[in-house]
Task: inverse folding
């Protein structure tokens, strides 16, 4: 009976042949390492964010008078409410780390080289959208950190003449941060960003499959040998292993370090008449934050950051050398180390300034 | 013009018309309603602001402060930092304003001393009438 149902389903849906063609017949290069699995780990992190977000929506109230209390109630009153909230916070931070590591590994392996320029651009766009996700999620608990981080961010466009104030007012829904801002950021976080993110993720994954995985540059045997391995089980199990490592890390953090990403200002209700002293953004915004501090001109400080973001986005078209092994590109190695050092230094400086 | 070119042109014209006619309502929908309310006035007692002290107020929705400066009298300033909108704090010991977000500092008249703020704090009109200070 069961076999009959299975056969009938198979005859109509053709799942077996789909699995065979998409997983077993799909070949990946030999010598691929665990860094190749970071993309799927980022996708899993996004799925966790979506699922935990759905649960948070059940109790969260996007209104200035109720938002903070509703989040406190999720943590303290709703049975196991702390679980989706803590997962949402921890995974959002780990997701940023995973995407940064993914981008670094792609950069070091020079996998953005032709014909994969668009794959890089889509990946960097996803990174930027992830940051907007984090930022728009910031505001929702209506805490001191939410309020003042949003004040700063929505004031950034005012650095640009003519349209700056208008854009800032559109972002805020008025001259100041208010309930209108909360509604806008809530809509952005739960309704506008997810389909944009999914669309670009789809395009990114389509390109990855279409152009196939790049050959690891450091594995000389793989470069020499044209041998390729089936995606399943060769690479699939590597991905599953890394996803399990990610889950282990998530559960370690929510068990032993649940407040690691929650400073005091994130647990204090928003006060529009008091900016907390020495307020800091999340760790991934510390470098831009410090740049804002040390560059004395607002327009120049913001323009410089926009320019750096554009260089990062369009890097495959700026790096025109054909050599695909970074070990044979000493200047690029120096540039890469310098860029990372500057980013780390600004982050640490921002943290302790 | 053959039939195919005509259909292409027609589709382009109709599509552009739809996009153009929708873009205006979308922009207007997203644009905030103008409700600037800076025409209010606030009156406080002189005795509420002793020499060397500051008194925080809210004028027309804008957080502000009135300070009693030795030698300069009463000064009313907006507390909104001209850099990225955080609220400055008055430090009576150093007689300066400091922004907690990006460490911009202003003197007691609101002029920039250091840090990234591009211009001075906004000065608010102030009148002293008898025992009262009228701001706004």
Result:
């Amino acid at each position: 009976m069961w076999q009959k149902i299975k056969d009938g389903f198979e005859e109509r849906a053709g799942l077996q042949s789909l699995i065979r063609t998409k997983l077993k017949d799909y070949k990946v290069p030999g010598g691929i390492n665990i860094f190749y699995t970071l993309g799927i780990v980022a996708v899993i992190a996004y799925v966790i964010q979506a699922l935990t977000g759905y649960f948070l929506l059940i109790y969260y109230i996007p209104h200035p008078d109720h938002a903070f209390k509703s989040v406190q109630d999720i943590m303290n009153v709703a049975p196991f409410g702390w679980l989706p909230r803590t997962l949402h916070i921890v995974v959002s931070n780990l997701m940023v780390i995973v995407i940064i590591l993914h981008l670094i590994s792609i950069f070091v392996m020079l996998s953005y080289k032709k014909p994969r320029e668009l794959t890089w651009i889509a990946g960097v766009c996803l990174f930027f959208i992830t940051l907007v996700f984090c930022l728009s999620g910031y505001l929702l608990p209506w805490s001191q950190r939410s309020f003042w981080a949003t004040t700063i961010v929505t004031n950034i466009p005012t650095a640009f003449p003519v349209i700056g104030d208008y854009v800032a007012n559109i972002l805020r829904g008025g001259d100041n941060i208010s309930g209108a801002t909360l509604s806008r950021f809530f809509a952005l976080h739960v309704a506008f960003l997810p389909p944009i993110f999914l669309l670009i993720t789809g395009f990114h994954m389509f390109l990855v499959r279409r152009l196939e995985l790049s050959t690891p540059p450091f594995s000389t045997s793989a470069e020499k040998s044209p041998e390729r391995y089936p995606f399943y089980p060769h690479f699939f199990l590597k991905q599953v292993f890394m996803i399990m490592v990610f889950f282990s890390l998530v559960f370690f953090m929510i068990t032993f370090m649940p407040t690691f990403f929650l400073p005091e200002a994130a647990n204090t209700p928003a006060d529009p008449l008091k900016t907390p002293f020495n307020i800091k953004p999340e760790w991934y915004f510390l470098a831009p934050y410090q740049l804002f501090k040390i560059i004395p001109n607002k327009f120049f400080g913001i323009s410089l950051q926009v320019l750096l973001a554009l260089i990062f986005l369009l890097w495959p078209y700026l790096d025109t050398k054909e050599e695909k092994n970074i070990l044979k590109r000493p200047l690029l190695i120096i540039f890469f180390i310098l860029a990372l050092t500057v980013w780390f230094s600004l982050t640490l400086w921002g943290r302790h300034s | 013009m053959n039939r195919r070119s005509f259909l292409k042109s027609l589709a382009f014209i109709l599509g552009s018309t739809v996009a153009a006619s929708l873009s205006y309502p979308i922009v207007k929908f997203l644009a905030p309603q103008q409700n600037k309310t800076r025409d209010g006035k606030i009156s406080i007692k002189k005795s509420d602001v002793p020499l060397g002290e500051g008194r925080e107020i809210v004028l027309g929705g804008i957080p502000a402060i009135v300070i009693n400066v030795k030698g300069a009298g009463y000064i009313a300033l907006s507390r909104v930092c001209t850099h990225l909108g955080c609220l400055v704090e008055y430090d009576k010991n150093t007689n300066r304003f400091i922004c907690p977000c990006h460490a911009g500092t202003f003197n007691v008249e609101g002029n920039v001393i250091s840090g990234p703020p591009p211009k001075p704090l906004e000065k608010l009109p102030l009148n002293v009438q008898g025992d009262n200070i009228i701001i706004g």
Strands of chain A lie at 27-29, 228-230. Chain A touches chain B at residues 148, 151-152, 154-156, 166, 169-170, 172-176, 180, 272-279, 289, 292-299, 301, 353 (CB under 8 Å). The CA atoms of residues 119 and 207 of chain A lie 6 Å apart.
